[in-house]
Amino acid sequence: MRTIALAVLAFLAVTHAAPAEQASHGLSLYGELKYPPDFKHFDYVDPNAPKGGTVKYEAIGTFDTLNPFTLKGVAGAGVTLIYDTLLTSAPDEPVSAYGLVADSVAVASDRLSVLYTIRKEARFHDGTPITPEDVIWTFDTLKAKGHPRYRLYYAEVLSAEKEGERGVRFRFRTADNRELPQIVGEMPMLSKAYWSSRDFEKTTLEPPLGSGPYVIDTVDPGRSITYRRDPNYWAKNLAVNVGRHNFDGIRYDYYRDQTIALEAFKAGQYDIRSENVAKNWAIGYDGPALEQGLIKKENIPNKVPQGMQGFVFNTRPGHPFQDPRVRQALGYLFDFEWANKNLFYGAYTRTKSYFSNSDLASSGLPAGDELAILEKFKGSIPNQVFTVEYEPPKTDGVGNIRDNLREALRLLAAAGWSVKDGKLEDASGKPFEFEFLLVQPEFERVVLPFGQNLLRAGIKMNVRTVDPAQYENRMREFDFDMTVAGWGESLSPGNEQRQYWTSAAADDPGSENYAGIKNTAVDALVDLVIHANDRAGLIAGTHALDRVLLAGYYVIPNWHLTSFRVARWDKFGLPPSFPPYALDIESWWIDPARAGAVEAKKQQVQKK
What we know:
Blueprint: E1 26-28, E2 54-60, E3 87-89, E4 96-99, E5 102-107, E6 113-118, H1 132-145, H2 148-153, E7 157-163, E8 167-172, H3 180-183, H4 192-195, E9 214-220, E10 224-229, E11 249-255, H5 258-266, E12 272-274, H6 278-284, H7 288-291, E13 295-301, E14 308-313, H8 324-331, H9 336-342, E15 349-350, H10 368-375, H11 384-387, H12 402-414, E16 418-420, E17 423-425, E18 433-438, H13 444-456, E19 460-465, H14 468-476, E20 482-487, H15 497-501, H16 503-506, H17 520-530, H18 535-551, E21 555-557, E22 559-560, E23 563-569, E24 572-573, E25 589-590, H19 592-607
Parallel strand pairs: 2-11, 18-19, 18-20
Antiparallel strand pairs: 1-4, 3-4, 5-6, 6-8, 7-8, 9-10, 10-11, 12-23, 13-23, 14-20, 14-21, 15-22, 16-17, 24-25
Helix pairs in contact: 8-12, 10-18, 17-18
């Protein structure tokens, strides 16, 4: 769960904090909080937004559990809507959070603990109070029985203890892991009493007890799930919720794949769609509904770091990608410029960093503090980190990869591969063949041209597109040769980096170390990022980590955008502005007049 801001790690400051422990209404990692203790609502929302109506979204594949906190099963879309957290993020601030279940939060002067005080009025949906015992049970259970990511995320949180009538103190292993006070605030509130008679580790389709703005209304296993706004929601009038959670109902309908889902959207079967396929965005919505203004398409600019998406190599034993020269060679055979021109309508920017679209992305050659960090690992990291700025291979965009093919074959030869009768073979005569695992059929049009370029080097790539359930199971067990994956980043990366890149996560089922990276330098650099003392140290450490990951050629970088692409049926009222750090659709509302007009016109269109 990263519901606040994906792990934050710069300078932690409690507003108006004194040297001694002092309670505050929120936490910020960039200095003072934007909003004072008596603020009425976030600036971007309409505090008078009307309530009502049902919004429908799409989901892909299927689901078989309503417990999203364990490794077993595929959780229903949107299920975290039923849960509250100690703090909640401010979508118009980069790394700030304000009290939700917690009335106040106080970081100890030695930074070895944080005290959260629970609001007296905080309630579960059955009316029972949220108590310190519930918070403590949630922490202990998630760490012991939850998804493996929790063990890594909370690795340096030693304990949770009751303090006073309504307080919970979290104690930390170290004082220099600056994000710890805030990440424990992201924890969902689970009821100890409810779960005492149930097996937390089993899948379940029984709607769990929550405390959030919505309750689960109806469940059609594998097909749909509907949430109903709780009119008695205990926190509906808190400043962090004013103008938000405006829909009376939220429904997710499941579709087999995105191609079917797009056609369903155009037919008016659901209301809002975030588009991640450039071709769809360019021409896929064409039709009467768009022409008559019933469907609106918007590029909403954002300041969200884009992280890394790429073709991921599985470097574990048994897969043909353990040699970094092989991985580097295959990078020469992906023609991004051709794909961007012919498939993406020129919409994308090539990704060159694991922390793209932010000041955390490395560039140029290392210098200053960054160079000093890297020099500690000289001899155990590629020397090119010091001498060459990373740049993905380029082409002229017309499909001519002759120069790149020549360089790829040179690298493959150095790694012990040679072409015989048009096939690339190792010294034993074993041909180079692997499987590319996909879950989105739309990606085939990107991957298949890549496969044609691989064939020119004598490499056979078999593309396998599977259903979402099988895909999730295979990804959990790292049962793939190559796949498409991405890692989102915040402006302050921290503890989540452990499950992305470290040796401890490489063989931990369900972790996001998809590549299977086991590198002591990477492990040390992740620790350095997590324990950075200030913003400057964080930037230097992240730049160094970025360079070493890039030099490992664990992925073939893909591309990124700096805006949200959103298509919607024109039935919504919108807030006065959009927040820059999240797409907060919960601040939108159904406009009855617009909805009625759209429905009438839609029926006319469908009759023609």
